[in-house]
Amino acid sequence: MGNPINTTGATLKSSIIHQNIPCTLVTGFLGSGKTTLINQLIADKSTDERWALLINEFGRIGIDAALVSSSQDSDSAQNNIAIREVSGGCICCTSQLPLQIAISRLLSDHHPQRLLIEPTGLAHPRELIRQLSAPHWQTALKMQAVITVLNALQWQREKYRAHEGFQAHIRDADVLVINRYAQLSTDDKQALQDWVAELNAQITIIWAESDDQTTINDISTSNDYSAVLSTQLTKPSQTISQQRTVNIAQPKKSVISLQPLSHSLSNKSLFNPSTNDNNIQADKDIELPYRYHEIQQDIVVAGWRLPADYILNADKLQDWLLTLPNWQRIKGVLHTSNGWLQINFTPDSLSTKTVSVQADSRLEIILQTSTGQEDAIEVKLDWEAYDHELMALIL
Asked: Cα-flanking dihedrals φ and ψ of residue 272, to 5°?
């Protein structure tokens, strides 16, 4: 684990307090396209510029870093991007210490010229802004414009437009990047802009590059998107400069189950001994195959890790995933009959991509409750049955 961390912050701050590193928050609701936007920013950066990326994952199995790193084409690009993950809950709701340690280590160990922070889609942007406006970060970090990503197909559905968490990302952004708008009519696009203006009249809207090569407000999205997006990295944040603070309600207590699994190739069976619900195992101590599930903020999150030599039937795996109840997000890096695949599913987009060999297979799903009643949905989900179904896909 290395040298112990001084939780008082004195040692950490002394090494980074004068660095004044440009820092950009990239926010957005679940499935909005934050990782895609970050990959776009990374693709457009100078190859000799050192960047650092802090990713906060709501679940306990780190996957997003693999989704980012696998999108980089060259070793030189990867060598100039340091990635660190903070998993197991929203950094806005949990103790500030994991956030402070992660940022401090990135700055002190890698000396980046720019820092990007991607909070989970269930984050409270205003609370994170408040944390990063604290005095001990004001000289270490030079906060730039807060960039929020909005999926226009999600916006078309009332359950998203009316969701407080969905709206919160727009309220506390300097820049809004709208993607997946090709199917919207001219009237729909205007209605979307009006809806955004009601939440945040000061926000700058950028329409992401679209497959239909649409021109909006006389700006060619295909030609100018990258350049316009990159300029946001050097614009100061009006939102953060105001240092707005609100009282954020504490999240409901999580219900957590951590399960080491044993696999029998002869009958595809699983054995799930009980473990202490509060015993969050270190990554290196997890015995594979492994599954966990938990409930946070009326969202059910579950994840599996499998040994690298477990090869899953690719076609049957996708069919099985799409039958899971009320799923909101599915992502993973998995060894399949089609090779190692990165999967990234939202209700309106199914993406798969070949990636390099990984140390193990990782899969994570987010299921949204329809009623908000934790006990009700927990009864409906038969995790042992899902274990058996997943393991039955092993060749």
From this structure: -120, 85
